[in-house]
Write a structure and sequence with these properties.
CATH superfamily: HUPs
Distance between the termini: 57 Å
Strand order of the largest sheet: 7-11-6-1-4-5-12
Order of helices and strands: EEEHEHEHEHEEEEEHEH
Number of domains: 1
Number of helices: 6
Shape: globular
Structural class: alpha/beta
CATH topology: Rossmann fold
Oligomer: single chain
Radius of gyration: 22 Å
CATH class: Alpha Beta
Length: about 250
């Protein structure tokens, strides 16, 4: 079984984000980067399937040259080889252009399965995985939390507001992974040493067919200071009045 995993390097979740002077990107000074957390569930799912059924796990990432250091961890986590499509930060703001670049690289590989995280924590649009599937004409399921893969079909579950829904799909298929699908492993020292012998292919790409671009980034409006109405039940009438007349939630 040939499995492709799309991964992305993003600012770590506790980063202090500030807007760059040109107001079209974030300021990258003092920002630390790591693998997108949702992509770690995708990597683990792919590696578990390889361990069970044999085959190959190929990781693909689109991003700037600096991502190369973080991407080495994907190999330590069990991917057999890595393809790094190098492009500039600003190009990554358009999900369609990103998906086209990934789909172009994936198509000649003819994988049985493609895994993506359900979204990346920097842009949060959750569009790249479904767009890749559409471009490749693969069926896809998003945000899966349970998975069973057979010879030529799979069964996956997704949690929704209405409850858990079970889906079946033929292969090949693209899946995006939700937190809880599995527990990502920590690479051992042996895994890290072995990963140094694995192949990383670097290709420069230029994302020219962008459907959208960032015009301006703005800081969120500051929250107004809180108001203390009192410290006893005497404050309840005033609280109710403000909820009814000002907040209009009653």
């Amino acid at each position: 079984m040939k499995i492709v995993v799309c991964v992305k390097v993003v600012p770590v979740s506790d980063s202090i984000i500030t807007i760059a002077p040109e107001k079209t990107a974030i300021d990258l000074v003092n920002i630390k980067f790591d693998l997108n957390p949702y992509d770690e569930f995708a990597i683990e799912a792919a590696v578990q399937l390889k361990e069970k059924n044999g085959g190959e796990v190929i990781a693909i990432s689109l991003g700037p040259e600096r991502d190369n250091i973080s991407l080495k961890r994907v190999l330590a986590l069990g991917a057999d080889r890595m393809i790094h499509l190098v492009t500039a930060d600003k190009a990554l703001s358009d999900p369609l252009a990103t998906a086209k670049a990934l789909a172009t690289e994936i198509k000649p590989l003819s994988p049985d399965l493609i895994f993506c995280g359900k979204l990346s924590i920097d842009t949060g649009n959750g569009l790249v995985g479904p767009l890749v599937a559409r471009l490749l004409e693969y069926p896809f399921l998003t945000g899966i939390c349970e998975l069973q893969v057979g010879t030529d079909q799979l069964t996956a579950a997704k949690d929704t507001e209405e409850g858990r829904i079970i889906y079946e799909s033929s292969l090949p298929c693209l899946l995006t992974t939700e937190k809880g699908l599995n527990k990502p492993r920590y690479p051992s020292l042996k895994d890290i040493m072995l990963s140094r012998k694995k192949e990383i292919i670097t290709k420069n790409v230029n994302l020219t067919e962008k459907a959208s671009e960032i015009i301006q980034l703005l800081e969120p409006a500051p929250r107004p200071a809180g108001t203390i109405l009192g410290q006893s039940v005497d404050a309840v009438p005033e609280l109710i009045r403000r909820l009814r007349e000002e907040a209009k939630v009653l």
